[in-house]
Amino acid sequence: AVVSTQSTGALYGDKFWDVPPSGEGFIVNIGTLIEDITDRRVKAVRHQVRQIEKERYSIPFFFNPSFDADIGMSLTGKRTRAGERHKIFGEWMREYLPGVEPGLLGKTT
């Protein structure tokens, strides 16, 4: 997610942290797979937007690899956490997504 730094705060874990404005910048939230393939050099943070009494716009954008992309190794050639269970992105996503967004994919048989 990309968030304008004109926001008033963000939820990290179970606590809201102030995210003060810093000019015309943006905050980019990345997902766990990026953290995994960068050997945790780039950190993914669970986040949620707080309801405020101010008009704002949100345009979420999700950029994922193809369903059959190999996610087994990091950029440095180490086995990824995702790769311990799944070799391809689509298999990993089928397991990961219901845990973070229950009901989004519905039941699969």
Secondary structure class reads alpha+beta
The unreliable regions are: 1-5
Order of helices and strands: EEEEHEH
Please state the oligomeric state of the protein chains shown.
Answer: single chain
**What's the total helix number?**
2
Quantity of strands, as a count: 5
Measured distance between first and last alpha carbons: 31 Å
The main pleated sheet reads as: 3 strands, antiparallel
- Helix percentage range: 10-25%
Rough outline:
globular
Side-by-side strand order of the widest sheet: 3-2-5
Mean pLDDT: 77
Q: What gyration radius follows from the Cα positions, in whole Å? A: 16 Å
Account of the protein in words:
With 109 residues, this protein is α+β, with helices and mostly antiparallel strands. It has helices spanning 32-37, 89-100; strands spanning 2-4, 10-12, 15-17, 26-28, 47-48. The strands form two sheets. It has a three-stranded antiparallel β-sheet, with no helix packed on it. A hairpin with a 2-residue loop joins β2 (10-12) and β3. The model is unreliable at 1-5 (pLDDT under 50).
